[in-house]
Design brief:
- The structure is a homodimer.
- By secondary structure, chain A is α/β, with parallel strands linked by helices.
- The first copy, chain A, is built from nine helices and twelve strands.
- In chain A, the strands form three sheets. A five-stranded mixed β-sheet of chain A has the order 3-2-1-4-7, sandwiched between helices. The first copy, chain A, has a five-stranded mixed β-sheet with strand order 10-9-8-11-12. Chain A has a two-stranded antiparallel sheet with strand order 5-6.
- In chain A, strand 2 and strand 3 form a beta hairpin.
- The longest helix of chain A has 25 residues.
């Protein structure tokens, strides 16, 4: 009997699911938005619905799956299948036993892990990380996270929360306070969630927006609007991009000092901006590295793009 | 024939060597100072001399050794036995093939590794790290470094420079520039090498020294003088200690987010100050961790103390 893999990616902006052959070939996928305000059970329900919809569209049932891998933004104890917490969702989760809840509706092998771990694993197995055994996948979207692979194994840590690079602090006297409660962590100085605050900082300094952003519609300054601003030659957009990239470059430098990996893979929504972002990240990284790098660490962008999380989540079933 | 292990610890302040039974029992040890100004060959010569002196004192020869483990402050490619560079020595080393140089004079199995790795391994095998397989040894002396053990294996990285926590940047707008050339890295905000600069900052702010330190004799404010100042109730000494401990606490928090280990072991000369230092480190760590820790990470001080590096270096022979 032919069997399939299912991957689910629960992000801070969208929730997507896909069906794969066991060799990683994508058969079909679905995306929904506006799940972030739902309660825990509501998000679990959304996952169940989208998976069933996918299966039914191909006249399949849960019995046809090897299993379902779920990557979710937040602190995940993969071993227990529990979402410990997540700052990206209104519910916060709070030790929600997502795996058990899903298994009750979708009786198959289910793995729940951090979305960055899933993406790292996807790139390692099928994308930019093929051929490397020591790499860090670094993702910048509405949040910031990393998946660390050392000697071909995901580093999960004691509670499953390793790779939470977004909450490492790189500027403790920053005026921006993160949702985690600390000042100057990487997430608050680089992620899309904070772009409106960065933009406002420059508006207050007297810079003028070329894309109609004012202190009254700051929330419209999303990652997509940043792309638009860069294309339109908006000076503030350029500065916001540079601020974010400079923070990520410094953060990569810190990871380089601690882990000394062979490869960094940059992923997440930010890469839609294009090469100029990664070029800026690399410039900052190299300016800090100076003469402290003895073997060249490679810095590349995600090959799988938006599908890294989905395919990686599915691939975790085969880990 | 009974055989022995030899460990050598080449620090930024002292160079020590010891002879061990294969079960880790120390037979004898030697310490020399003032080696840091010597050229590379001079330091290698010092190591050879001290090892031969130890052997001869017990009527032994190199043939009686299983091998010699050398821990040295700096960037080390352990696989090649090369000291890539070190900011703690005048010579800087610069790709010095220390292992080959030593083998030419001491023909036995020799391993050269970073001193923090050796210390981590020593604590893991014989000290505070026994029973843990995921731990970080964090050392603060004239320099700052870490040895990372994941799943019972030292994380060395691509070039052997993993664990260089001292050069991770945690305050990019700091007024203190590290010997590495960057601003606000952990080493420049916490290590003994910078205590005179910290002290001077407070003198300039108008604080008065109770231990006779002025802008003219700042270099006398060593770690030992800090201990004296703390005992004498010197306000500046207390602030210097807090600054250092606050930086280390923040740095542990960052490592916690990235690696999520079970255990942190604090070592190096700083622990001579006593419990008040580690208490301050822990206070800072917990203030940043807030509600982001789901399993309690243990924070302890080195059990092996000054001998961690020596015993760890010797134990690397049995790795």
């Amino acid at each position: 009997m032919k069997r399939y893999l299912c991957g689910v990616d629960v992000g801070g902006t969208k929730l997507s699911a896909a069906l794969y052959e066991t060799d990683g070939t994508c058969i079909d996928s679905r995306i929904v938005f506006h799940h972030t305000d739902k309660c825990c059970d509501g998000i679990a329900r959304t996952i169940v619905d989208i998976v069933i919809e996918l299966l039914e569209a191909h006249s399949l049932s849960v019995k046809d799956l090897v299993g379902i891998g779920v990557g979710i933004a937040g602190h995940i104890n993969s071993e227990k299948g529990v979402v410990i917490t997540s700052s990206n969702f209104k519910s916060g989760f709070n030790n929600y036993p997502l795996r058990d809840k899903l298994i009750a509706e979708l009786p198959t092998n289910i793995i729940v892990d951090n979305d960055a771990n899933a993406q790292a694993w996807g790139e390692y197995k099928f994308g930019a990380g093929r051929g490397y055994s020591n790499l860090i996948f670094y993702t910048i979207s509405s949040g910031v996270g990393a998946g660390i692979i050392i000697d071909g194994k995901l580093v999960r840590g004691m509670s499953g929360t390793a790779g939470e690079i977004g909450h490492t602090i790189v500027d403790p006297y920053s005026d921006i306070i993160c949702t985690c409660g600390n000042r100057g962590c990487v997430m608050s100085l680089s992620s899309g969630h904070y772009f409106p605050q960065f933009y406002n900082r420059y508006l207050k300094q007297g810079y003028e927006s070329k894309i109609g952003i004012t202190s009254n519609n700051l929330e419209e300054f999303t990652g997509r609007k940043l792309e638009e601003g860069l294309k339109a030659g908006d000076e503030i957009s350029r500065m916001v991009m540079n601020d974010s990239a400079n923070t990520v470059g410094l953060s990569l430098f810190n990871l380089f000092q601690v882990i000394n990996p062979e490869l960094f893979i940059i992923g997440g929504g930010i890469i839609n901006i294009g090469e100029q972002y990664v070029e800026r990240v690399e410039k900052r990284f190299l300016s800090l590295v100076q003469n402290m790098m003895y073997d060249r660490v490679k810095l590349v962008t995600s090959e799988l793009g938006a599908s890294a999380g989905l395919l990686g989540a599915a691939a975790l079933i085969l880990e």
